[in-house]
Amino acid sequence: MLLAPIVEIFCDIDEFYKNHVKESANKILPLPKGKRQRKTELSESEMMTIMILFHLSHYRTFKDFYLDCVLGQLFREFPKAVSYPRFVALMPRLLAPLTAYVLSRTGKHTGLYYLDSTKMVVCHNRRIYRNKVFKGIAERGHCSVGFFYGFKLHLAINHQGEIMSFCITKGNVDDREVVEKLMQGLTGFGAGDKGYISKKLAESLAKRGIKLITKVRKNMKKKMLSAFEKFFLYQRSIVETVIDQLKSICHIEHTRHRSPVNFLVNLVSGLAGYCLKAKKPSISRSKFWMSSIA
């Protein structure tokens, strides 16, 4: 049984979508000649709600969720629900509004931020040469557990576990290349793992009011950090907890995609589902205050 507050989620999404359509009406390019986009029985707000509800449910596959839950348990809530193949065909329409919705639900500017990236595997390594869906799009990358084929999800969160920004890149992109984009508009402290070590990057961020703190490698000189900065860096595992929840609870990663666009829709709707969670991993502000006077 689905325990998510369906009515509240739909009302929030529907209000956002109406405003989004008004604001982007003059910015969207017209469709090519000879092509048209018919209105569907199921509105875009309802489809966005269904995608987000899937990531808040216990279902592992969207097909099972749609057939068992949407067309079954939630038939009264979605009386005009289309068939599963038709819904999958309509999913690409949701990418832009879902992305805008996630960006509208970003967290508070607290001045305390954590950075990390995670692999988004699209197929097993043994099937790389047979994968046609992401041919020419995905790339091989390397992480702490070995090589993979797919993409990377880069995240910046605050100390309350709220997503501040995100970026999706190919699997072979260096984590340091997207840091300035992730931290755009933010000031304060940022903490990352050893993959973010870069003197040039640290100096660039410092000019924008961000102090990047990382651990040092064995062959490097130790940095002089205050008690507060040491405690702040020590709590970096919170971003790993957020990533674990995104993968294990919101199911943003699987290897059954049949379309690159639907891969993005699934990922972004998973991020939206996480943003709507009432309880997120967080660090008490009082702990930072106690560490600063220690």
Number of strands: 6
Order of helices and strands: HHHHHEEEEHEHEHHHH
Number of domains: 2
Shape: globular
Structural description of this entry:
The protein is α/β, with parallel strands linked by helices. It has two domains: 6-23 and 39-104; 112-292, Nucleotidyltransferase, domain 5, CATH 3.30.420. It is built from eleven helices and six strands. It has helices spanning 6-24, 44-55, 62-73, 84-90, 95-104, 179-182, 199-207, 227-234, 237-248, 260-275, 285-292, and strands spanning 112-121, 139-143, 146-158, 163-170, 188-192, 210-214. Strands 1, 2, 3, 4, 5 and 6 form a six-stranded mixed sheet that branches. Strand 2 and strand 3 (146-158) form a beta hairpin. Helix 2 crosses helix 10 and helix 5 (95-104) packs parallel to helix 10. The chain is globular. 31% of the residues are buried. The model has no long low-confidence stretch (mean pLDDT 89).
Which characteristics define this entry?
294 residues; alpha/beta; Nucleotidyltransferase, domain 5; 2 domains; 16% strand
